[in-house]
Each structure stands twice: as C-alpha cells, then as structure tokens.
Amino acid sequence: MIRAQPGIDKYISSYYHAHMSHRLQVLIPEGLDRRVRKAAERGRVSKGEWVRRALERALASPTDRSDPVKELATLGGPTGDIDQLLAEIESGRG
Length: 94
Description:
Elements: H1 8-18, H2 30-43, H3 47-60, H4 68-73, H5 82-93
C-alpha cells in the first residue's frame, strides 16, 4: 500500500483550487439540492466537485439537438402565401 506524504493532499487541493478562477452560483429547488447532495455523498466528493464533474460530462457528450425550424419543415405542413392560407382557414370555418 502506497502512503501519501504528510500534507500532500492539502498541497494538491490548494493547487487544484488555485487554478479555478470563476465562481458560478446557481439557485436550484430544495429537492434537486437534496438529490445532488446525496449523489455527492455516494461518490464521496463535495457537492461542488460533483457538479463540476456533471458539467464536464454534459459538455463532453455530443448534443443531437437540431434546429426546431428545420424540424417543423419536415412535418409537411401547409406552406404558401400567408394571406391565401388565412383565407383557406376562414373558408373552412363556415
């Protein structure tokens, strides 16, 4: 079993935190905070570290979000002159 030198954990922690230069404050509901706290406890890390890791994972995975306008165009809905479309709608109501 390899033992760390005394004080090395404190040095590593200080080094790690010294390179973080931005603070992010996010307000979350109590229930979500409780879930994050429990997840952090299970992982034996702080809530801040758990959130940093979750952000890294979320940003590392590719997003498959397409353009909503392009998605609507694929639905095959009616298109054309707006005045003509409105006239057709009105004529169908009678």
